[in-house]
Write a structure and sequence with these properties.
Strand order of the largest sheet: 1-2-4-3
Distance between the termini: 39 Å
Largest sheet: 4 strands, mixed
Bound molecules: zinc ion
Strand content: 15-25%
Number of strands: 7
Radius of gyration: 19 Å
Helix content: 25-40%
Shape: elongated
CATH topology of the largest domain: Zincin-like
């Protein structure tokens, strides 16, 4: 049983926060967010009576980050991601927000795992005018990272559910070639 375990609602989600001592930690508090759970690990030197306020502070930080991501969320993109999730992934994938961003230098898309921005997907504005099957592929690619964070064989097998994968990857390889970079580093 952890020292602290409670649930709170945030947006349309119910999140869990747990906190416990971790003997391996010397000074720093560590925490991660994964699948809707904030897991906080505390060094022994943190006194029991200070645990509550520290948990509250981390929960507030996560809430603020999540609220900011929701304000910036693009609802057309969200609808498109939901459609792709339904069609190709049996609706099994979950994420927090998806939005267009104009501050990605090279990458076409990204999906965060862990931390206060867990499940926030960002798609580069740059691809907006690209063919629809490519944009959908990039969305599907980032969604699939919710199940497999790395480019493992399991990831590619799973993503192959998106039918136009070869065509879309060919398009992106062409872009990467023109920019003298590797296609796999773009998303
Ligand atoms: Zn990727």
């Amino acid at each position: 049983m952890p020292l602290v375990e409670r649930q709170f609602s945030d947006g349309k989600d119910t999140l869990t926060v747990t906190a416990d001592y971790d003997n391996r930690l010397k000074k720093t508090i560590r925490w991660t967010v994964e699948n809707g759970t904030i897991r906080i690990r505390l060094p022994r030197r943190v006194r029991k009576r200070d645990v509550g306020p520290m948990v509250d502070e981390i929960v507030e930080k996560v809430r603020r980050q999540r609220a900011r991501a929701r304000r910036q969320q693009d609802f057309d993109l969200q609808a498109r991601a939901e459609e792709i999730n339904r069609r190709y992934f049996d609706g099994e994938l979950q994420w927090h927000t998806i939005r267009w961003v104009n501050n990605m230098q090279k990458r076409l898309g990204s999906c965060t795992s862990g931390g206060a921005t867990d499940g926030d997907i960002r798609i580069s504005e740059r691809i907006r005018p690209w063919p629809r099957y490519v944009v959908d592929y990039i969305i599907a690619h980032e969604l699939a990272h919710r199940k497999h964070p790395n480019h493992s064989k399991a990831f590619w097998d799973y993503l192959a559910r998106y039918p136009q994968i070869e065509r879309a990857r060919g398009f992106i390889e062409g872009i990467a070639f023109a920019e003298q970079t590797e296609a796999d580093t773009l998303l």
